Amino acid sequence: MNEIHAYQIGIIVIVILFLVYRSSVYHSLITGLWEADGEFCEEAGISYFYMLLGGADMFGERTCYILSGQEDAVLINKPTRVNISFDWTSGIISDQHFSAFFYDVKDLKGVFPEYQNIRFYPECGKMVLYYGDTITAVLYKNCSSSELVLRDT
């Protein structure tokens, strides 16, 4: 009977370690410079949208900078912090789900809400920010710029 409990505990520990490791891998992958493509910008009536996500601390909180605008005006120019939480029900190899809380964006209500969901597609470096049925941003990771910007952090 004790051998069975030892095996069960061993399997539980392995599963927990796998889930923690998987979460840390995805947290590392979402760090970097993200930019909207032309199609999203055109649909949203903007010229550009960038989001820089710094590395996460042990609680999932990270620095964040959001920049968006039109050719003749900046709409969002906001340094902030964001807490990104991994959704443990995400598939193993499919798109990944996170929830995000953006601090200090109350003045951007209606444009960029505090609470949002993230659907992350690691295969193609795509991130979709949304709340309810509203898509806030469709972003793609710019790896070469991410390396330059985050090199010294």
Written account of the structure:
It is built from 3 helices and 8 strands; from the N terminus they run αβαβββββββα. With 153 residues, the protein is an alpha+beta fold. The chain has one domain.
Brief account:
With 153 residues, the protein is α+β, with helices and mostly antiparallel strands.
List unreliable stretches of 5+ residues.
none
Helical stretch count? 3
Integer-rounded radius of gyration:
18 Å
Please give the domain count: 1
Structural class: alpha+beta
The largest pleated sheet is described as: 8 strands, antiparallel, barrel
User: Distance N terminus to C terminus?
Assistant: 52 Å
Order of helices and strands: HEHEEEEEEEH
Strand content: 35-45%
Strand arrangement across the biggest beta sheet: 1-2-3-4-5-6-7-8
The coarse overall form would be elongated
Into which percent range does the helicity of residues fall? 25-40%
- Number of E-state strands: 8
Mean pLDDT: 80
